[in-house]
Each structure stands twice: as structure tokens, then as C-alpha cells.
Amino acid sequence: MAFLEAHILALILFTPAVGALLLFLLPRERVTAIRRAAFGVSLIPLALSLWMWFAYQPDVPGYQFVERAIWYEAIGSSFHLGVDGISVPMVLLTTLLTPLAVLISFSIQENVRSYMMLFLLLETGMLGVFLALDLLLFFVFWEVGLVPMYFLINQWGSANREYASFKFLIYTMAGSLGLLLAIQLIGVASGTFDLLTITERWASLSGPLTLLGLPITLSIGAVKRIAFWAFVIAFAIKVPIWPFHTWLPDAHTEAPTAGSMILAGVLLKLGAYGFLRLVLPLYPVEAKTYAGALALLATLAIVLGAFASWGQDDFKRLVAYSSVNHMGFVVLGIAAAAMAQGTPLAGDGVIAVNGAVLQMFNHGLSAAGMFLLVGVIYERAHTRDLNEFGGLFPLAPVYGGILIFTAMASLGLPGLNGFISEFLVVRGAWPILTAYTAISMLGLLITGAYILKGIKKVLHGPLNEKWLGHKMEINRREVVAIAPLMVLMLTIGVWPSWILDVINRTVLRLFG
Amino acid sequence: MAFPILSIIVFTPIVFGLALLLFPAHRHREIRIAALVGASITTVLSIWAYFTYDQALGGYQFVEKIPWIPALGISYHVGVDGMNLPLVLLTGVVIFTGVLISWGIDDRPREFFAFLFILATGVFGVFVSLDLFQLLFFYEIAVFPMYLLIAIWGWKVTREYAAMKLTLYLFVGSVIALVGALAMYFASGLGTFDLLALEGAGFSTGFQRFWFPFVFFGFAVLGGIFPVHNWSPDGHVAAPTAVSMFHAGVLMKLGAFASLRVGIMLMPEGAKFWAPLILVLATVNVVYGAFIASVQTDFKYVIGFSSVSHMGLVLLGFASLNLDGLTGAGIQMFSHGVMTALFFAVVGVVYDRAHTREIPKLGGFIRPLPLAAVAFIIGGLVSMGMPGFSGFIAEFPIFMGLWQRAPIVAIVAAISIVITASYIMRVVGNVFFGEMPKEFEGHISPIKVQDKVALVMLAVILVIVGVYPRIMAPLVQSGAQAILALVGGA
């Protein structure tokens, strides 16, 4: 038990990767065994992170379950893990969505072993970002997640997968380049990559960087500024913040169902997490200066994302753009907090960030759910064209009910999770960024429009004759996959404090 | 005297090589086995030396010194430290995997392995040399078999041209370096070629600034520095697979290492003076090399130019003249060496079956050759500097060193990372994924066990260094620190 406590994070982090390697021992034809093994392996991190959730103490300040080991000492980087109230929900989200996504992937027929191995490696990559307390380690895991996703889209995706995967990879790598350079700069300036040490020393760093008389030197102020913008761009691409979002519709649409679930459910949160963990704490002044611009972009994401969603005929693309729309609220909350730091409105900023972090969790649930449901209909109809559907409710009543439920969570219906987080963001941002918040709320109207459009075109109206006689209903495995998400959507909607409390304690300490 | 492990490592290949010439020419099987035994001995010893080096003690270890031509102050002096020990290990790995990859050579394997082993001795000799004359001596031993190996066993279309071009470039480079070396010998007034003695010779700043380019750029030709890099892509492509593995994997490191050992360490003031120019040229290597690699249609030329690009990173690390840059350069020499050996091995596997290297004509090779494809992807990820692999462990400190020296260079060079990612992914997609052209259907024989062993060995090394940098970084850093002490700290 003591070992478990002392190394819980490392266990959560590496179990998927070890599992992936063990999968390699199974012969590639034993598809059923591979699927079950992969599912079983993915349940282990979930069990561990549930244990961690209950063992986590929200009142204790600082990071918990901290582990540190020597890694790349030569340049000042160590293997340093830890969680706080912002990262614990993210870890839970990741370890929850992965088994569900694996369950959904049971319908993959080709190269199942490679698929499952890549999926598990991807999980390790994502978890590593949330757990890392060392900048270099953060970057390592950030990049590690890219390659499995590239192959998942490229090999198991739909018609336009080559273009979408290539765009995804190159676009995000270009962003990561900035991240790489910024981290190098910070490492050189601080003499270490350890986040805790850097945070301590950051404000008092001084002195130019270069020696030995080459004409180009950098002052510490310049270092900080370059690093700030490099971070912002890298994270802006990942979230994605308008106008850096253009990789997302293609990647989400062309990815296999489970890939989209994870992309929207977790990968986008890495960018927002980067803002909360690195940008705001290290750069309060710069963040405050540019918070207005960030809020503008967030509002554009909300409004334009919603309009774009409304205009789609491809069901999956509609849901993809909805991610842009929902993540806009996350960024709005972050921008509000950045702007309010150190002012009397800081308390509202705290509310806004609470909303943002909860929105990250909630959107993870609802986006994963929506992509799951899109995948269900796609596998039966072999089309995602909304105009091809129509009146399917009688043919698939259970599916219809689940779709409406999940869509309502996405829309922000009071009583379901989306409402809580969006309300908190709006409540927190209103005193700080009134105009932007007001426009975003108008954007919410359009959100309603596209969600209802989706539901209407698929379920209601005259039945499209060609689906008669087809088996359109959702099957048990898929229901089992989405059930936990639905339970959480309802629970958080009516009783959010079990998660909000955890988030709030940390946010108060960081941004209050 | 203690067990002369370094001499055994250096001379075993040539002893085996000459012994091979005594075998009857037709006994291919015996020849191959003997070659493998010879290579294995070297490999095992180099691994042993690597892990028994005392890191706490540091400095040169396993030192041997025997007077050779005392009248001229030439001795046989060898030793390993943090910078050259990984390179010795690298050579051991590449000679072993190279022999495995060359198992299928049917045209005079006896002579082939003999020349390959003479080459190996030359390479080992340069890396461990602590006497300047000896270093140049082994350098020439390494260059001359390249000509024969490429001209006789190479790709028929360009082998004579490529062999001639390579040899002329490298000889001219070494002559220029020799002139510089002789200048140092005479100016030192010490009457010795011993590198350690020359390190303390106290050459005047003016002397150093004048003679440094001779030595540095003379050797850096073999390192592939722009604009004298163009022997390299043609040489890579024309050479038979194992020779390409050696060429890119080890030989280019020879040039870079010699420019470090003889140029930077003996004339540090000259190095500081010329560092800006080296930074500029190496940046061109890195970025231009990546762009050129992107537009190649011959699979092997892509890798050849990618080598030019990655060697640029080594030279950038050198030119930053600080601890991070030198450490990164040292690791990069090892990492790139293994990675490029892996690349060429896979290219060889594909070419032997498809008989073409034109990327548009290939496709879908992951199905008959899954291991080769995964190995190539791993190599590709290393090449991109993807974390989790050795390339990242090497490139990261190089960039840190550049930030401390010349931030603009860091930014420009970093662009190459994205270019590399794009051409690697494109090549992987076009060669291994997609539709296999009809003419190959059913004609692609599966990979042989000896190729499998070689590919797995190379790939595993790249991953191990990537996830456990402790296995190499502290060692290289200790070597870099010693160099920094000569340079005067940075």
C-alpha cells in the first residue's frame, strides 16, 4: 500500500505504455484477445486514478503524490510528477475516456493490435502532460502524444485522412516548436527545468544570457517575452483558439470514432492546461496585458464556431466545430482570470477559472459522447450526411434518447453538466469582460441552434425510406461505453460540488 | 601494462580482414562467419570498455603509450574519454550490424569484408588516437578503402563517379588538415605529435587564428560542412548498404570528431575567432540540407541529405563552445550514427527486394516488411527529434547551447525540425503505406533473421538512450567539460 501511495502517479502514467508493449506479445490474429486485453489494461489506470481521487486532499496546499527521480541530470531535468486540483480532474477524465474509447474501438477490424498499442501509448502521452512538474518532461509527453494520433488518423481514418493527419501533425508540431524554444530559453535562464524551482526564482531572475562576446545577446526581459509568446502560440494551436483552429475540423472529422473521442475529449484540454499551469502563473503581467485580445479571440471562437457548426451538413464536422465553440468558453474564463488578477475583481476571476476547468472536464464528457454517437450512426448508415438521415427515432429509440440527452448536455441545459460550467464562466467573466461575455451569450443561442439542427435532422421529421429494414439501433457495448458519461453528465449537473470543490480549492490558491 | 583493450579493438578488424584474404574465395559461408566473429569481438570489447569506464574518475582511461618514431616525437598513444568513448561504441555497433546487413553479398565477399575491416580499423584508430601523426595515419587508412568499396560494390549507375568524388574531396581535406597539423608541430617547438602535449603548447593567438581553418575545415569536409558537403550524398547513394551505414554513421563523425580533437582542442583561440563562421555554415547545413532532402525522389538521397542536415547540428553544437552545446554534439554524433545506420539498413532491405529506390514507384511496403517499416519509423522519429528517442536527448542541449551563444541561429535551425518532420512523414507514407504497385505484389520476400537482428539492435539503442539518458549524457558531459577547460570556459 505504501508503494502504491508513493508511486501512484508513475503507475498511472506507465501502465498504458507497458500494456501496449505487452500487447505486442499477442499474435496479431487473436483479435478478440487483443481487444479484451487492451480494455483490461486500460481499466487499471482508471482504478488507480479513482483511488487517487479519493485519497487526494483538497485542503492541503501544493502538489500531492509527488515523485521525483533522476532523469536527464546533465541539463537539469528530473522526472518529477505531482497533481493538484486542476490536474486531478484531467487525469480522471483521461483514464475514464480511454477504456470507453477502447470499448468503442471493438468495431475496428484491421490491424487491431497496432491500433490498440497506439491507443495505449497515446494515453501515456496525455497523462504525462498533466502529471509533469518538470518543463522538459512536459514537453516530452506533449510531443509523444502526437505521433500515435497521427497514425491513428492516417491508418484508420476516413476518406480524407492523409490530408487531415498530415495537417494535424505539421500544424501542432509547428506550435510545439515554439514550446520547445521557450522551454529551452527558460531552462537556460533558470538553470533548471523544474517547475517548482522556476516558479520560485522567476520573478527575481536577472542578467543577460550570453557571454563570450558575440554580438547577439538577450536580456532577461526579452527571454521572458519570447517565451511568453511562444507558449501562447503553442497552446493556442492546441486548444484551439481562433484563428489557429483550422487543423481541428479535418482532424476530428477524419479520425476514427475513438480517435475523435480522445482528440476532443482530452487532447484539446492539454492546450488549456498549458495556459493554466504555465502561462498564467509565470506571466501574470503579460497575461493581464493581453487578456483582452485573448478574450476577443475566445468570443470569436464561441460565436464563429457556433455558426460554423450550424452550417454543417456533415454530422461529425458539426460536432467538431462544436469543440471550437465550447473550448471558447474555457479560454474566456482563463482570459477573465488573467485580466482580474491583482484587482478587486479577482474573486470573479476565480469563479471564471473554476468554470473553465469544469468546462474542460464537462466538454471532455459531452464531446466524447457526441463523437461516440456520431460513430454509432456512421457505422450503420455509412454516411455522415445529415440530409441523408431523417425520422430515425422510431427505428432507434434508445439511440435517440441517448443522443438527445448528450446533446442537451452539450447545449448547456440546466440540470446537466454543461450548464454549470458555462454559467460559472459567464458569471465570473461578466464583471470583468462584460461586452465579450454578452456576445458569447448570444453565441449560446446559436449553440442551441446547431444542436437542435443535429437532433432534428437525424431523429425527427419524415422517415427516410432507405433506412427501413436496416438495423439502426445502438447495441449493448456502445450503451455500456456511453453510460458512465451520461451518469457523470447528470450527476455534475445536479450536484457539482464533488468535483467543483476539488477544483476550487486549488484555483483559489493559485488565482485568488 | 594493463589489458590493452583499445589496441585490441583497433587492430582486431584489420587482423581479421587480412586473415580473410587467406580464405578460399568461394567459401562464402566461412568468410561471412569469420567476419561476424571478428566484428563481434570488437563489438563486445567496445561495449565492455564503455561500461567499465570510470565516470567518477574521468579523463583519459585505458591509456596505452608506446614510442613509435621517437626521432620525430611520434608515439602510439591511445585513450578514451567522455567524447570518444561513445563513438568507439558506435563503431562497434555499426560494424556488427553492417556485417549482418551484408550477409547477402555474393560478389567477392572476401575482399568486401577485408576492405570493410580495414576501414573499421582506421575509424577506431582515429577515435582513440592521442598522437596527431597517428590520428592522420589512421584517417588515411579509413579513407582509402572507401574508394574500393564504393567503386567495386556500389550502385552501377554512379559508383565510379561517386567513389572518385568522395576520395578526392576527403584526400584534399586531409591534406589541408595535414598542413595545419605540421604547422602546429613545428611551431610548438616541443618536437612531439602528442595531442596532450600540444594542448599545452601555448600557440599564439595570431598563429591559431591563421591555422585553425586549415585543420578545422580540412577535417570538417569529412564532417559534411557546407559548402564542401556534396561528396556526401553521392557517396551515400552509390555505396553498398553496409558502406553507407559506415559512411554516414561513422565516417562523418570521424571528420567532426577530428575537427574537434585537433582543431578546437589544440587551437581554442582560433576556434573562438572562427566560431561565428562555423555557426553560419552549419546553419546552412541544417536548414538547406533539410529542404534539399524534401525534394529528393530517390529514397537514399533523402537520407543522404538528411545526414548533411544532422551533421550540421553537430557542428552547431561544437561552435557554441559551451557545455550544453558540446554535450549535445557528442550525444548527437552517437545518436545520428545509430539512426542513420538504421535508415540505410532499411533502405538496403527495401532496395534488395524492389530493385528501385524511386519513392513514387514504391508503396505499401509495411505489409511484407512490417519490422523494417517500424524500424524506419523509429529512425524517422529520432530524426525529427521526437522526445522518447535519442535524437531529442541530443538536440535539446544543442539548442540550449545555441540560445546561450546565438539565439537567432537557434530559431533558424529549429525550423528544420518541422521540415524534417514533413519529409520524413512523406517518405514513410509513400514508401511503406498506401498501395503497393502491382509489379511488386508477391515478389517482396520477407526480411531475413540477420537483418532483423541488426534492425532491432539499432532501434533498441535509440529508444534506450531516449528514455534513459543517464546511460550516455553524464559521460559525454564529462568529456565536454574537459574540452571546455581548454577553451577557457563558457
Short description:
The complex is a heterodimer of chains A (512) and B (490). Chain A is 73% helix and 3% strand.
Number of strand segments of chain A: 2
* Number of continuous helical runs of chain A: 19
Secondary-structure-based class of chain B equals mainly alpha
Shape of chain A: globular
Helix content of chain A: over 70%
What's the assembly state of these chains?
heterodimer
Counted beta strands of chain B: 2
Strand order of the largest sheet of chain A: 1-2
Protein described:
The complex is a heterodimer of chains A (512) and B (490). Chain A has 512 residues and is mostly helical. Helix content of chain A is 73%, strand content 3%. Chain A has helices spanning 2-23, 31-55, 87-104, 112-131, 135-144, 146-156, 161-190, 195-201, 220-238, 247-254, 257-282, 284-310, 315-340, 346-381, 397-411, 417-429, 434-459, 476-494, 497-511; strands at residues 64-72, 77-83. Chain A has a two-stranded antiparallel ribbon with strand order 1-2. In chain A, a hairpin with a 4-residue loop joins β1 and β2 (77-83). Chain B has one domain (5-487). The longest helix of chain B is centred in the C-terminal third of the chain and has 32 residues, at 323-354. The model of chain B has no long low-confidence stretch (mean pLDDT 91).
